[in-house]
Design goal:
The chain is of the alpha/beta class. It has a domain at 6-56 and 91-113 and 129-168. Helices cover 29% and strands 26% of the residues. It has helices at 28-37, 45-48, 79-87, 90-94, 133-141, 156-168, and strands spanning 6-10, 39-43, 58-62, 67-71, 98-101, 113-119, 122-130, 146-149. The strands form 2 sheets. A 4-stranded parallel β-sheet has the order 2-1-5-8. The chain binds iron/sulfur cluster (SF4). Residues 10-12, 18-19, 44-46, 102, 105, 107-108 line the site of iron/sulfur cluster (SF4).
Length: 170
């Protein structure tokens, strides 16, 4: 492997219209500044798992044992579909030094994804937050990857720590 510094980014932050409604959440600092110094690789976990654009909204749920990713309108469980699609990308993900996530998404939220309880076909709001389903997957397979979201990058101190980390890799 070469010694390039590679940073994964939630695709919608790079201005790509991959959200469930076809919109993006462009975070200009990434395309105007960070991309000049580092190699940024875009990933949309929900597109990768074949959900398409636009797509019905999905959500994060917790049953007795574990978290699940489900389509909100009919509660179809998409967890296995997601994990098998992402598993196929493991080699690429393992080469990343860092990942910049879109906050609040059920897939990409970094400790910012709301989840509901599910029991059979009954759901109940918890008003609690955790990592999105893809964040949980990435942490599992690549615990050394530096994770941050666009909200933290608006904070000078956290942004500075992230840039120091990237410099330390050079
Ligand atoms: S937050 Fe993640 S899953 Fe949602 S559109 Fe952006 S990249 Fe795709």
């Amino acid at each position: 492997m070469d010694d390039k510094i590679r940073i994964g980014v939630s695709s919608c932050l790079m201005g790509l219209g991959v959200r469930f409604d076809g919109n993006h959440k462009h975070f200009p600092w990434l395309t105007k500044e960070l991309s000049k110094a580092y190699e940024l690789q875009t990933f949309c976990p929900e597109v990768i798992m074949g959900l398409g654009v636009p797509r019905p909204a999905i959500g994060l749920y917790i049953n007795e044992k574990s978290f699940e990713l489900r389509r909100n309108k009919d509660l179809e469980n998409l967890s296995e579909k997601a994990l098998s699609a992402w598993q196929a990308l493991s080699d690429e993900l393992l080469q990343l030094d860092a990942f910049i996530f879109k906050s609040k998404s059920p897939s990409c939220g970094l400790n910012s994804a709301f989840y509901d309880k599910i029991d059979g076909d009954q759901t109940k709001k918890t008003h609690q937050k955790t990592d999105g389903f893809f964040v949980q997957f990435l942490k599992e397979i690549h615990p050394d990857c530096y994770l941050i979201d666009e909200r933290s990058l608006k904070d000078d101190s956290q942004k500075g720590q992230f840039l120091d980390y990237l410099k330390s890799l050079q």
